[in-house]
What does this fold into?
Amino acid sequence: MAPYRIRQYEDGDYEAVRTMFSHGIREHAPAGYIHMMKHPQTQLLFLGLFLAVLAGSGSLLVSLLALLLTLIGGWFCIWSLWTDYVQQSLRNDLLDIRRTYLEAADTCLWVAEAEGVVVGMVAAVLPEDPSERGRALELKRISVGREHRGRGIGRALGRTVIRFAQERGYSAVVLSTSIVQYSALQLYESLGFQRVSESFPSRLASFLQFSVFCYRYEIPGSR
It folds into this structure.
């Protein structure tokens, strides 16, 4: 495959970056749905619904149909959660990319380019956690196009953020990701990030055991 290079974001990358982010996030919807269906709480909920409809209607066919419709509804619910996150991000930090990632201090967004096409992206920003301000930068928005994975692009993008933080005197890089973003989890841990905490973004997430992991990378030799 064609070689790639990592460079700073340019205004001409705007649509490619937004599209790559959108596609990358929506890819996790099936994994999120499977994760939900694997948990005993969800299975008991669906079993209870099936038995309740069966007891009320006396029809196995009606009960199976109700279960099927609920499964379909669950899929659309999970899909909408990921889609809503995408839309929120496109209206916020990815609406004015230059202002968010290039004009603010100690922030940047890079793209990986191959044959003139954007095939990956990553950003560095000041952390949302106030306690980390001045100590760490946050890695965000990392994504690599599906057809370009397995080439080390993700690792190179991650190292770009680490190097950027080190050059600016920060002692660490932090990030957060969900439990179902399996390839991202493997990437971060292969780069040396350590999991430091786990949280649930909502009561529904807690019920479904859908957690968000926080990771931290301590830059060697930093103070």
